Amino acid sequence: MILKLQKKKLDSLFKVDTSSWPDSLVKANLKLKGIYYQRIFKLDSSEYYLRKVIKFEKERLELSPFNLYNLAVTLKKKRSYKTAIDVLNDAQIIALRTDNLKALGIIQDELSSVYSRLQNYQMALDLKLRAINLIENSKPIDTISLIYAKHNLADLYFKTKEYQKSAELFIQASNEFKRINYMPTYHLANTNLANTYIKLEKFHEADSLIQMSIEWFKEFKNENYINYALETKALLLFKQNKLVASSRIYDSLVNNA
């Protein structure tokens, strides 16, 4: 909501001549629009504005690794994985040259995410562990980035079938998201934990978590998360040999797709 209000205020200045604006304001204008469009999945617009930020910085020989990172996030969401890796590698070079451990940790965390999308899980895991080490050793510690990195590490352990490690980290992440009141991500972590419990055949624990998450997602009308949670519920029912109930959920998901 805050981002949307900031974007609206910037749009009101759209016809104003920006030639007299200080560089910092021009960059903030372009960056905010790029991130706003990224959040609402207007990804072509996001890429347009984030590339304008980078072009603006290049002309002034002050390229920021964080703006390259922002562009890479948009490219990943567009499934332009090869280009995202190239951009993140450029960002790594700048972060290393400037000894910016905070930026390097966040960049390697995003690289891990891209390699995970490409199903290169070993590379993703190596990068994730390095990223977490960098984030933990940067001052001050970026607590939010660290929580997300450990949540995503749990997902990688799930994908590499290390389910006990995955469950332990999802529990930690869930507790941390609740502590900082990130409730959508808290319930997402619980849904991921439920999936892990299904693999561990802890069906009662999985059912309690998934039921709570489904109710919360429905109350706040988050369609993507609702569908993911319902799919997890259907899988749980299938594993419990409740085939009719499971099929009913799968059919509703297909019909509503």
UniProtKB/TrEMBL annotation:
InterPro entries: TPR-like_helical_dom_sf. It comes from the Bacteria. This is Tetratricopeptide repeat-containing protein.
